C-alpha cells in the first residue's frame, strides 16, 4: 500500500528509523515532534493515516487525537507509544484511535497495522485490488495481469494503486502527486505524465484514461 502519513514522534533517532523502515513498504511519512506542529499539520494537510506518540514535549498525543475527532476528521490513527498499560490502551482506543501498539515494536507489524486501518477506513478488508484483469496486492506490493507478474517501479505502483482504489473516478494530477511526494519534497513537473505513460506500456493503453483538464481515471469497464 502506498500512503502518505503524518508521524508524530519527538525522538529523532527513532523517527528517522521509522521513516526509513516504512518507506520500504511504500508508506511515506511527513514528521513532526510536538502537539502544536501536529495540530498545524493536520489542519493544513490531508493524510492517509497518523502514527501518534502519546508522550510529546508540549503535552499528550491524546490532545491531538481529541481535536482531530472533535472536528469530525476520521483519518485513521495508530497510537505508537511506550505507555502500554491497559488503562492507556483503553483511553487511546476510547478516545478515537483505530489501533494501539506499544514500544518496542517491529516495523513489519507497524506497516501491517497501518495497511489494515487504512483498508478499514476505505471499507475494505482484503489487500487485493482487482480490475480489468489486474490484481494488485497492496501487502506484497506486486501486480499480476491476466495471471502474469508485471514489474512496477515504486511510483508506478503508487499511481496505479490510487487509480485502482477508485475505479472509474477521475483523480487530479495534484492528488496523484500527493501519493508520490511528501510535503517537503520537490515535485517534478512532469512526473505523473511519465509514470502514466510507462504504466500504459505495461498494462495496456486503454486501461488508464486521460480526462482533459481534470486528470486520469481507471476504465472500470470489462
Automatic annotation (TrEMBL):
It comes from the Bacteria. Residues 126-220 form the OmpR/PhoB-type domain. Pfam families: Response_reg, Trans_reg_C. Residues 126-220 bind DNA. Keywords: Cytoplasm, DNA-binding, Phosphoprotein, Transcription, Transcription regulation, Two-component regulatory system. It is found in: Cytoplasm. Transmembrane segments: none annotated. The keyword Magnesium does not apply. SUPFAM superfamilies: CheY-like. Residues 4-118 form the Response regulatory domain. The modification 4-aspartylphosphate is found at residue 53. The keyword Translocase does not apply. InterPro entries: CheY-like_superfamily, OmpR/PhoB-type_DNA-bd, Sig_transdc_resp-reg_receiver, WalR-like, WH-like_DNA-bd_sf. This is Winged helix-turn-helix domain-containing protein. It comes from Muricoccus vinaceus.
